Amino acid sequence: MPTRPRSQPPAAQTGGETPAGRLPVPEELFKTVSSSRVSQVIVDQIRLLLKEERLKPGDRLPSERELCVHFGVSRVTVREALRILEASGLVEIRVGARGGAFVTTPDARQVGEGLATLLSLSPLTAAEVTEARLVVELGIVPLIVERATQEDLDDLRAMCDEHAEALERGEYTMELSADFHTRVAACTHNAAIKMLVESFHGPLLMSLRQAQTVEPQMGLLGSKEHRDFVEAVAARDLDAATATMNAHLQRTASRVKDEHTEGGPVEG
Questions:
Q1: Is the Cβ–Cβ distance between 87 and 40 less than 8 Å?
Q2: pLDDT confidence of 219, banded at 50, 70, 90?
Q3: Closest-CA residue to 226 (of 208, 206, 236, 241)
Q4: CA 201: distance to chain centroid?
Q5: With the CA atoms of 20, 22, 23 and 26 taken in that order, what torsion angle do they form, in degrees rounded to the nearest 10?
Q6: 8-17, 142-151, 200-209, 238-247, range with the lowest pLDDT
Q7: CA 35 – CA 41 distance, rounded (Å)
Q8: Which of 41, 116, 164, 259 has its CA 20 to 30 A from that of 14?
């Protein structure tokens, strides 16, 4: 009786387009791995492919089964690697017929969320976080004054108007302040600076919420300082912009410190 040929796992597609409209990732990008922590080795390989831009945002990775074949590992190991990549913001897992693991661009806010977790689990204090933020945000004021465009100024003024309306409605929150500072950092037109500043908002917001529940009136002074800063930037007045931002951040740092030592109010 003739023997039946052994079935082979299906090969990864190398032609055609994915539902996302991009060509499938070539299987030769991936190398078989052998390690006590193979999932991390897989993660490191994919990180390297991203760094080399051989994988780009929007690319869909091969299926779990195909990745098992490419890497020579079990499906459990592949799933663990995908979970790590998803937690790092490097891939997005979508379910359904058009689902799969898609390469994404990491969001700086995810970094901020990670820092917020670190803050809650470590001896790192709210005062230390605020002090670091003060150093960074003051340091970029010269770039903001030099590079802010009319569109930047229009956006910042619109935000100040929205904040004033929120104060009148009793709906001003620290998230509005955080959004303003992120938009200010974007005026440097330096993506690395924007990401760095944005990453501080998670731990900062958490520390302020721990100190005291935000009341609408507490944002009144901070909102005025925001507007004064915008007008100083519009006038290309570096001294005034620096002085305004310094006073704003120093006051916030002082309030955070007071709250953790004496139970004083928090403003932002």
A1: no
A2: confident
A3: 241
A4: 10
A5: -90
A6: 8-17
A7: 7
A8: 41
CA 35 to chain centre: 31
- The Cα–Cα gap between 147 and 248 comes to 21
> Whole-angstrom Cα distance, residue 128 to residue 120?
13
| Token pair listed for 2 | 């003739």
- Domains in the chain: ranges and CATH: 27-103 (1.10.10.10), 108-261 (1.20.120.530)
pLDDT in tens, 9-23: 444 444 444 555 566
Q: What is the pLDDT of residues 228-240, one digit of tens each?
A: 999 999 999 999 9
Q: Which residues contact 37 (CB under 8 A, 6 or more apart)?
A: none
Q: How far is CA 177 from the centre of its chain?
A: 17
